[in-house]
Recover the amino acids of this structure.
């Protein structure tokens, strides 16, 4: 048996409230929309992963989800332009990533990162 995909399910009363963040800020595409559930996806091949953690590292709170990007500075600028709440400022971490944590429209802590 092989794990083919890992998908976080983020609960909300208003599914459409997440659209701007996940589609416009993170450039994800809607690949399924059943009105009660919307699936956003990125193009390209990914390796399924899951983090098990006791903290968020460097004094940050544990985020609900982590998203690796290849254009962190651009995403950071979009987040600031949109006036979204930063929970952890843009930082280069000692374990080799640059990241920030933002609160999405659902109230979830989203760790957005790129490897240095």
């Amino acid at each position: 048996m092989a794990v083919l995909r890992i998908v976080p399910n983020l609960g909300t009363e208003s599914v459409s409230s997440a659209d701007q963040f996940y589609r416009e800020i993170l450039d994800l595409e809607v690949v399924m929309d059943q009105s009660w559930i919307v699936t956003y996806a990125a193009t390209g091949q990914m390796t399924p992963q899951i983090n098990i953690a006791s903290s968020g590292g460097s004094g940050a709170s544990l985020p609900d989800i982590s998203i690796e990007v290849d254009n962190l500075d651009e995403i950071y600028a979009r987040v600031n332009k949109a006036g979204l709440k930063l929970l952890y400022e843009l930082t280069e971490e000692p374990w080799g990533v640059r990241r920030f944590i933002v609160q999405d429209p659902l109230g979830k802590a989203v760790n957005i990162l790129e490897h240095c």
